[in-house]
Predict the 3D structure of the following.
Amino acid sequence: MGLTAVLDWLEKEENGANVVGVGHRVVHGGPIYAEPVLMDDATFARLKSFEPLAPLHQPYNLAGIEAAREAFPMAAQVACFDTAFHRRHPFIADTYALPREYYDEGVRRYGFHGLSYEFIHRILRHEEPVLARGKVAVAHLGNGASMCAIKSGKSVGSTMGFTALDGLPMGTRCGQLDPGVVLYLMAEKKMSAAEITDLLYKNSGLKGMSGISNDVRELEASNEQSAKDALDYFVSRVRRNLGGLCAELGGLDCLVLTGGIGENAANVRKAILENLEWFGIQIDFDANARNERIISEKGSPTVVLILKTDEERMIAAHTAELLNLKQPLVPAIT
Ligand code: AMP
């Protein structure tokens, strides 16, 4: 259902709907917000000050809040952040090797996709409480892609950093890149900041590498070598980052795959997870091909699960919880 249909439905008196709260996905909570927050003017101004940290997303998120305030003036507006789940990272996982003043002014590894990780971890706590208490890696593999290390329920590391460009290659974003490449593009190719932004956010990743598409289904259907190269690169970066996160965790009890690719692309999952028996990952490839919930062999030291993420439901749950509405939209934190 589109937003207009929802608004039309809400406006009809006979439906008896009373909007008491509107939850918003806001990409950046800066160094401050580790939890969702009820919007007031001061908070709005603070979130606006984070626009330079996420110029492609934050202004649109805030425009949504302004529109909702106008449409539902009596309702509470709740901002839920993609960065919040990662806000308790230890300093070492949060900083770059730059002079300290840059960290202090906010140049940090924020990490994103936090609402997805939080949702997955709540589901895990509910369905697999023993695993959830251990060392967990979650791979959110969709058009945007990142991975997160979670220890005893807390995020301890993420592949994304200061912006949502870092880490894994994505549909159209480059993922990890030597900053020297950016210097080269500026100095030798005379590219402007806007041109480089366009290249790295919109014309790189699977789309840029393949020259065909950002969609894994199209790349899998293609016979072009460039499509195969793009998928192979994606797989190799996921595997490399998995190794790094496991070192950070000191082991791995559970690996969860989620997002459009993680939930559906059985061949990509197979390529990511094969030949990792030495690492403690023993995959049941038939279960993988059938997209089953558990795709590791019985007795595999690491249990591998496919779980469907739902960031919107997480936002609705946060909003309901903040407003003390008793609706268990997602199993609550106990
Ligand atoms: P998301 O951003 O999480 O919605 O993921 C979107 C991406 O998931 C798409 O661009 C595809 O690359 C991938 N995807 C979705 N369904 C499938 C599928 N059945 N097989 C392979 N990839 C898929």
Residues 142-143, 171, 214-217, 259-261, 264-265 surround adenosine monophosphate (CB under 6 Å).
